[in-house]
From TrEMBL:
<dbReference type="InterPro" id="IPR007384">
    <property type="entry name" value="UCP006257"/>
</dbReference>
<feature type="domain" description="YqcC-like">
    <location>
        <begin position="8"/>
        <end position="104"/>
    </location>
</feature>
<dbReference type="InterPro" id="IPR036814">
    <property type="entry name" value="YqcC-like_sf"/>
</dbReference>
<dbReference type="Pfam" id="PF04287">
    <property type="entry name" value="DUF446"/>
</dbReference>
<dbReference type="InterPro" id="IPR023376">
    <property type="entry name" value="YqcC-like_dom"/>
</dbReference>
<protein>
    <submittedName>
        <fullName>Uncharacterized conserved protein YqcC, DUF446 family</fullName>
    </submittedName>
</protein>
<dbReference type="GO" id="GO:0044010">
    <property type="term" value="P:single-species biofilm formation"/>
</dbReference>
């Protein structure tokens, strides 16, 4: 097991918490078609918070539970900066959590 797994698992919980606190947590999943987008961050079918909830968090949970290799890079914070440019204070907690996640991924290099 990668030694970063516990810290990454904790960070994923913080990301989920921030989505819930801001009211960006959806109780109903998007359609199968929306989830099958091939675009980065599913920008053509999902809002960024939906992508975090239904694609990113699900995939990262699978990686941790199945002891799969972690990604070599992560640029989620950059996307969050663009998406939430008009809501800097409202999104601060989420952006900080994503920044820490990106750093945990980069630290392995």
């Amino acid at each position: 097991m990668d030694g970063r797994f516990p810290a990454i698992a904790e960070q994923l919980l913080l990301i989920e918490r921030e989505l819930r606190v801001q009211g960006w947590w959806d109780p109903v999943p998007p359609s199968a078609e929306a989830l099958n987008s091939v675009e980065p961050f599913s920008v053509d079918t999902l809002d960024f918070h939906q992508w975090l909830q239904w694609i990113f968090l699900v995939r990262m949970k699978q990686i941790l539970e199945q002891d799969l290799p972690l990604p070599n890079a992560s640029g989620i914070m950059e996307m969050a900066e663009m998406v939430y440019a008009d809501r800097p204070l409202e999104s601060l907690g989420l952006r900080n959590a994503l920044k820490k996640f990106d750093q945990l991924i980069v630290d392995a290099r």
